[in-house]
Design brief:
The complex is a heterodimer.
Chain A: E1 4-6, H1 7-17, E2 22-25, H2 32-39, E3 45-48, H3 52-66, E4 70-74, H4 78-82, H5 84-93, E5 97-103, H6 119-123, E6 129-132, H7 136-151, E7 157-163, H8 164-168, E8 170-172, E9 180-181, H9 191-203, E10 207-211, H10 213-217, H11 220-233, E11 237-239, E12 254-257, H12 264-272, E13 275-279, H13 285-288, E14 299-304, E15 318-321, H14 324-337, H15 344-358, H16 374-385, E16 390-394, H17 398-406, E17 415-416, H18 427-437, E18 442-448, H19 449-454, H20 459-464, E19 470-475, H21 480-489, H22 505-512, E20 515-519, H23 525-534, E21 539-544, H24 578-581
Parallel strand pairs in A: 2-3, 2-4, 4-5, 5-7, 6-7, 10-11, 10-13, 11-12, 13-14, 14-15, 16-17, 16-18, 18-19, 19-21, 20-21
Antiparallel strand pairs in A: 1-8
Helix pairs in contact in A: 1-2, 1-7, 3-5, 3-18, 9-14, 11-14, 12-15, 16-17, 16-23
Chain B: E1 5-6, E2 27-36, H1 41-52, E3 58-65, E4 70-79, H2 81-93, E5 97-102, E6 109-120, H3 123-135, E7 139-144, E8 147-154, H4 156-166, E9 171-183
Antiparallel strand pairs in B: 2-4, 2-5, 3-4, 6-8, 6-9, 7-8
The chains are: A alpha/beta, B alpha+beta.
The complex binds thiamine diphosphate and magnesium ion.
Magnesium ion binds next to helix 19 of chain A.
Amino acid sequence: MSKSMTGARMVVQALIDQGVDTVFGYPGGAVLPIYDEIFQQNSIKHVLVRHEQGAVHAAEGYARSTGKPGVALVTSGPGATNAVTGLTDALMDSIPIIVLTGQVPTFMIGSDAFQECDTVGITRPCTKHNWLVKETDKLAAVMHEAFHIATSGRPGPVVIDIPKDVQFATGKYTEARQVETHYNPQVKGDMEMITELAIAMETAKRPLFYTGGGVINSGPAASQLLRELVAATGFPITSTLMGLGSYPASGDNWLGMLGMHGLYEANMAMHDCDLMINIGARFDDRITGRLDAFSPGSKKAHIDIDASSINKVIPVDIPILGDVAHVLEDLLNVWKSRGRKTNKESVQKWWHQINDWRKVDCLSFEQQGKVIKPQYALSRLEALTKKHDRYITTEVGQHQMWAAQYLGFEDPNRWMTSGGLGTMGYGFPASIGVQMGHPDALVINVAGEASWLMNMQELGTAMQYNLPVKQFILNNERLGMVRQWQELLHGERYSSSWSESLPDFVKLAEAFGAKGILCSDPADLDDAIMEMLNHDGPVLFDCLVEKHENCYPMIPSGKPHNEMLLRDSVDVGKAIKSDGAVMV
Amino acid sequence: MSPLKIKKGATSHSAYDLRPTFSDKEERHTLAVLVENEPGVLSRVIGLFAGRGYNIDSLTVAEVDHLGHRSRITIVTTGTPQIIVQIKAQLGRFVDVHAVNDLTVEGPSVERELALFKVSGLGNDRIEAIRLADIFRASVVDSTLESFVFEITGTPEKIDAFADLMRPLGLQEIARTGVAALSRGAVA
Ligand SMILES: Cc1ncc(C[n+]2csc(CCOP(=O)(O)OP(=O)(O)O)c2C)c(N)n1
Ligand SMILES: [Mg+2]
C-alpha cells in the first residue's frame, strides 16, 4: 500500500528517497507549503541563497564536484525566471540538476495571476525535460523520473513546476521502484565500430586523444580507463576546458588544454594528427576554429552518448554512440586482445615533433617590476595550493582562461567553469555549492572583478553557512576579455569595457563580516595567499593585476589551429579578417 | 539515487544511421515521429525546428493510440543530408519521443494529403472546374449556383497540380491538412 501525504510532503520525501542531502533555494508564496515541510525535518539541509540564479549555479557546482545531481527550489514568476540563466548554463555543459519551481494554483493558471509565468514554456528550450504537475497523485512519480532523466544519457537540467494547490492536496506517494520509464539511452558502443577504432590505433602514425566533459560526466571509472588507455598506448592527450582533470596535468602524455586559448603544442597536434580520438567532446567552435581547415589530414573517431553530437559540425569516420566508460572498457579489451599493437616507431617520431612544439614554451611570461602579472598570480596560487584537497571554480573572462592554463588538475570533478554558455557570475555561487558538497576541502573561485560583482550578494550566503570559500579576484579594472577583443578587432576603441566605480573589495568583505585582503605588490603575493589559505572563513582576495595584459596563445576567430597568436606584436590588430570578425 | 524500472521494449534513444553521406544537395524527407501525447510535446518539436533553423514544409499531428497515449507527428522537411541526420538525432533526444522514422530512406512509403478547394465562377469556367475535378477524382462537398467546394486527396504534388489548374478558374481559398504517411508492407 502506498502512503498518502500532501504534495509538499511528497516533494521532501522523494528528495530524501533520491538521496538528496542539500537543496539550494529561495522561498516565496508559491512554494510555502514545501518550505513548511523542509522546516519540519532534518534529513535535508536547505541553503538560503540571495538570488535564484545563485541557487541554480550552486546546485551546478554541487553536482559537478560530487557527481550527484544538484537540487534547487524557487518560487513562481520571478523566482522561476531568475533560474533561467542557470538552467541554460547546465544544459550547455550537461550538468544534472533538478529545479523545483512553485506555480500559481491550477485553477488560476492562464489568468495572469500574481507571480504567474509560463514556467514550462519559458524553460522548455533550456531544459532536458520539464513537467507541469497538475495532480498530486502524479507528483512523486514525476520527481523520481526527473532524477532518472537528469542523470542518465547525456545529463542535463530538468524543471518540475508544482502549482500551490497540488502541494496542499493529499495524494498517493509512489516509490521510485514503482515508476516505469521508457527513457533508456544506449550506453554500450557498437563492437564493430570499436574494433575499427582499435585497428586504426594500431596503425596510426600521429594519434591524439582529444577528451571533453563527457569523460567527467561518465564518472570516475571513465577517467580511470582513460588513464589506463593513455598509459598503455603511449599516445598524447589533450582536453577541452570542460574535460580538465580526467587525465592528470602531471601525466607524461599531457599536452595541456586545446582550443582558442589552448596550448601551442595541443593545437598543433590537433592540426597535424592522423588519428583523432574524440572522447566525450563535441567539436565546439572554441575548439575547431575554422571548420574547413580543422585537422585536415586526420581520420576522426568520436565517442559520445548523444547521437546529435556526432556529425553535427565535423563529419567523422568512426562514430561510436555510447557512454565513455562503457566504450573505453570495450576498446581497451579489444585492443589488448588483438595484441596491444601500436606503430611505435612513427609514434616516437610524433613525440619528437610534439616536443619541438613544447619548446616554444607558449605559457612563459616574465614577472618584472611592481605590478602583478595575472599569470604570475595564478602560478603562485598553483604552487601554494597544489598539495591541498583543492576545488577550483571560475567566473568568465581572461582570468578563466589563465586559470585553465596555469592551474593543474590531477583528478576529475575538481574544476568547475561555465564552458558552453560562458556565464559571468557563475563562479561564486558554484563555489558555495562545491563547499557544501565538500565541507573540509579548499574551494577557490578564480574571478574577474566584473564577473564577481554579478553575483556578489552570495557573500551573505557564504557567511550565513560559514562556508570558507576563497574568492581570488584578478582585478584588472577591466572587462578584460572584452577589452582584448576590442584591441584585436575594433581598433583599440575600448567601448564600455572599463570597470568604473569599483567597490573597495576589502571594505565590501568587511561589510558582510568576511575577511578582505588587498595585494598589489608581487613581493607580497605569497604571504597574502598564505593569509587567505590560513583564514577559516570566506575571504575576498583583491589581487590588483596588470590592466592591459592579453591572454595568449589565441586562435583568432576564423583562423585554423596552426595560425595561433603567441604574444603581442605590431600585427595583432590585423590578425582577424572581416570574415572572422563576425564570429563571437 | 534509486533506479527506476525500464519498460520492456523501451526505445534506446539511439543513433540512426551514423554513417554520413555528405553532400550539399538539399533533400526532401518525410519523418514520422511517434510521441507521448502530452501537453508541450508539439511545442518542443516545433521549438526545435525554429530554434535551430530547420525547415518545416508540412506538419500534421493527431492522436493515433488513445489507450497507449501516443500521437503521431508527420513532418516534411528539406535540408542537406547532414542536416536531416541532425534533425532526426535532435528529435530522438526528446524524452517524450518514442520513435523517429525517416520514411524517405527506410524503404517505400505512401504519402497522402487532403485538401479542400473553394472555386467560384459561372459559365464555361464552372463547367471546366467540375470536369477537371472529375479527372482528379475530387468530389464536390458543397455547392451553390456560383461556387463549389472540392475535396481532394493525393500526394502533395497532385494537390499542387490541381491548385495550378483551378487558379484561372476562380480559385478562392485552399485548406490543406499536410502530409500523412506510412511505410508500405505488412509491418510497422
Ligand atoms: C552574463 C555575461 N554577460 C556578458 C558576458 C561577455 N563577457 C565575456 S568576458 C567579459 C568580461 C569579464 O570581465 P572580468 O570578470 O573582470 O574578467 P577579465 O576578463 O577581466 O579577467 C564579458 C563582459 C558574459 N560572458 N556573461
Ligand atoms: Mg577584469
